[in-house]
């Protein structure tokens, strides 16, 4: 569970770090948003170093959690309800994450 929560925190840091420049570029918000965006992306990079397995495996498994958090962001922030297809895709991605992270003899 600790690993999964760390992946969720990592995904949130990445999404916030990318969303704030999006607000500046696409919605004309203040360029000051780039400062917390940079801090969030630095946090994202640091959080990736806290995972206790090989970097390539971390990135591969992280992708599954990122997809789930991104769709949660779609629902909560963008206020667009995910479709059944979205949820099926998340289920497949999280299954892949589980296979990668919890393989025997690791």
Automatic annotation (TrEMBL):
One of its GO terms (cellular component) is plasma membrane. The keyword Isomerase does not apply. It holds the Pfam family UPF0060. It comes from the Bacteria. Its main location: membrane. The keyword rRNA processing does not apply. The chain crosses the membrane at residues 5-25, 31-51, 58-77, 83-102. It is a multi-pass membrane protein. Keywords: Cell membrane, Membrane, Transmembrane, Transmembrane helix. It is found in: Cell membrane. NCBIfam families: PRK02237.1 (NF002586). HAMAP family: UPF0060. Belongs to the UPF0060 family. This is YnfA family protein. It comes from Azohydromonas caseinilytica.
């Amino acid at each position: 569970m600790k690993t999964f929560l760390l992946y969720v925190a990592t995904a949130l840091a990445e999404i916030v770090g990318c969303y704030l420049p999006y607000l500046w570029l696409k919605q004309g918000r203040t360029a000051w948003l780039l400062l917390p965006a940079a801090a969030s992306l630095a946090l994202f990079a640091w959080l990736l170093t806290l995972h206790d397995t090989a970097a390539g495996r971390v990135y591969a498994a992280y992708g599954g959690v990122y997809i789930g958090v991104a769709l949660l962001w779609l629902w909560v922030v963008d206020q667009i309800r995910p479709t059944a297809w979205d949820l099926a895709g998340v289920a497949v991605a999280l299954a892949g994450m589980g296979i990668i992270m919890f393989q025997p003899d690791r």
